[in-house]
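Long-time lurker. I teach an intro course on protein structure, and each term I like to show students one example going from raw sequence to a predicted 3D structure in C-alpha cell notation. This year I'd like something fresh instead of my usual example. Would anyone be willing to generate the C-alpha cells for the chain below so I can use it in lecture? Attribution to the forum is fine with me.
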Amino acid sequence: MATLPRGGRVEWIGLRPARETTMVAVDAVRATAGGGLDGDRYKGSNGERGVTLIQAEHLPVIAALAGHDVVAPATLRRNLLVSGIPLVALKGRRFRIGDVVLEGTESCDPCSRMEAALGPGGFNAMRGHGGLCARIVEGGTLRLGDVVQAL
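-- Reply from a regular --
Happy to contribute to a lecture. Here you go:
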C-alpha cells in the first residue's frame, strides 16, 4: 500500500474567488499552512479542505459518463489537476508538491452543483472521481509542473 509507481505532476491550478463565480486559472499560488490558497474562497476555513485535487486521468471518464466530449478542469471546481499518481493512495498520507507539504484528509465528493455544471446526471458522473481534499502542513508556492511525491 505504501509503494507508488512514480510521482505525479501539477497540470492546472485554479482558484475559486467566490461562491458560484468562474474559476481563475493561475501558473502559481501561495499556500498557507493550516489555511488555504491565496485568492481562494476556502482560505481561512478549518484547513481540512485547504486544497482540492482531481486526477487528470479521471477527466475523460467523467466526460464520458456525463455525455460530453471533454470536461475542462475549471468545470469541476477543484484547485489542482494532477496527473501520473493515484490520488486515492494519498488519502491519510503526507505528500509534497514542489516545496509545499500536504496531507490527504478525505475524498472530495461531488456536490449538487455538478448537475448544473455537467447537466443532468453530472453528480453521479463524478461519484468515485471527485478527487481528494488536503490540509496544508507546510506552506510555500505551488506551481504548474511541480512534482507530486508521496512522503
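Some talking points for your students: The helical segments are 59-66, 73-76, 113-118, 122-126. Strands lie at 8-15, 24-26, 28-31, 51-55, 80-83, 94-97, 100-107, 132-138, 140-143, 147-150.
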